[in-house]
């Protein structure tokens, strides 16, 4: 089995543990379309991975395949930010799905609160919010509002600051007993279903999770190495969470925090999200700007023919490995868990069964996952 992402730096994986520290990905696809050797992703060391592809190309499926491998591996802990609510099937690995994830208010940096609330941090209202959160250590939003009420500021400023903090309370994602790094790194997969959250609430949860995982590893408060998976990453980078995610990209390797992002719009990501990815898994892409964003961040020998090498088949990915500076086509394997992101198909509905119609069992394997034409 070929393991992508292993560059030979540092000590080798302990003898006899090689199989335990890799995530099965699929098989190489030969030029004639035949299946080649098995391929896996290295899990022994931290990585920054980027999965791209147009809608329906299989990028979320691929993200879930890697997450399944992480969930089955000792010493690591997968955490999945699921903006669309389609990755709950991963909990079949033995983990949990948080349908309404809540985080501690102090997991969002005090300096980030003005931007989170769309306030100017240098303005009177934004600076008051910043001071209030910092003064009460972000323990609760109620405490921050009390600090605003007691502040030496004009009444209009205090009222505006309080109104913004009250709005944040109504998002219903902040709780002093919210998820902690210890909760997220127990070893089993943790899926944060954010499909019911507003974009700003999603931003808050993502920022809190990314920052808390990084700081917990820096302080050595948790032993397992976190792997943070972010689907629809272009939506998450566009806010205060972007700064926390960029920290993982640029500084996460040393403390051992991995980041895997999936997006259909790589051109909408900050340049660092593409350039810092040591693993690129590219499905079908059509947009010129998206292809150019990938080319600009790759070494010249790989960038020159990137467009011509992008796969056309659903579920096939061009895997670019910075460790070996190679690019190969891989047919991604089937999911081990239920695929909640598979497109609905009329052929799976038995309209004669009853008035509502039922999905037939055809096309579903015994484990409950949708059959895939690329495996």
TrEMBL record:
Residues 337-375 are annotated as: Disordered. Keywords: ATP-binding, Nucleotide-binding. Residues 45-295 form the AAA+ ATPase domain. The keyword Nucleotide-binding applies. GO terms for molecular function: ATP binding. InterPro entries: AAA+_ATPase, HerA-like, P-loop_NTPase. It comes from the Archaea. PANTHER family: HELICASE MJ1565-RELATED (PTHR42957). This is ATP-binding protein. The lineage of its organism: Archaea, Methanobacteriati, Methanobacteriota, Stenosarchaea group, Halobacteria.
């Amino acid at each position: 089995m070929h393991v992508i992402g292993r560059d030979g730096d540092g000590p080798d994986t302990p003898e006899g543990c090689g199989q335990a520290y890799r995530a099965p990905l699929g098989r190489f696809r030969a030029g004639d379309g035949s299946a080649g050797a098995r391929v896996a992703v290295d899990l022994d060391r931290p990585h920054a991975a980027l999965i791209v592809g147009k809608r329906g190309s299989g990028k979320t499926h691929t993200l879930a395949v890697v997450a399944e491998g992480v969930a089955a591996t000792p010493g690591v802990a997968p955490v999945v930010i699921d903006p669309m609510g389609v990755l709950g099937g991963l909990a079949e690995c033995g983990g949990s799905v948080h349908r309404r994830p809540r985080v501690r208010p102090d997991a969002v940096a005090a300096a980030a609160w003005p931007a989170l609330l769309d306030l100017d941090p240098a303005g009177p209202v934004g600076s008051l919010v910043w001071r209030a959160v910092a003064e009460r250590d972000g323990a609760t939003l109620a405490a921050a509002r009390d600090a605003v009420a007691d502040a030496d500021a004009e009444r209009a400023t205090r009222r505006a600051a309080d109104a913004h903090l009250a709005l944040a309370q109504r998002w219903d994602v902040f709780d002093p007993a919210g998820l902690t790094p210890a909760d997220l790194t127990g070893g089993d997969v943790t899926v944060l279903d954010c499909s019911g959250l507003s974009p700003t609430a999603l931003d808050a949860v993502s920022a809190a999770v990314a920052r808390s995982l990084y700081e917990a590893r820096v302080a050595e408060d948790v032993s397992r190495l976190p792997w943070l998976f972010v689907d629809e990453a272009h939506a998450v980078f566009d806010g205060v969470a972007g700064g926390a995610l960029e920290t993982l990209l640029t500084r996460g390797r040393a403390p051992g925090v991995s980041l895997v992002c999936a997006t259909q719009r790589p051109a909408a990501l900050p340049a660092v999200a593409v350039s810092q990815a040591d693993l690129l898994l590219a499905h079908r892409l059509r947009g010129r700007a998206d292809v150019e964003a990938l080319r600009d961040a790759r070494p010249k020998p790989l960038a020159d023919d990137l467009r011509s090498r992008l796969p056309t088949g659903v579920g096939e990915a061009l895997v670019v490995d910075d460790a070996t500076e190679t690019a190969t086509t891989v047919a991604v394997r089937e999911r081990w868990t239920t695929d909640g992101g598979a497109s609905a198909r009329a052929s799976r509905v038995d309209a004669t069964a009853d008035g509502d119609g039922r999905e037939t069992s055809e096309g579903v394997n015994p484990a409950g996952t949708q059959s895939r034409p690329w495996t």
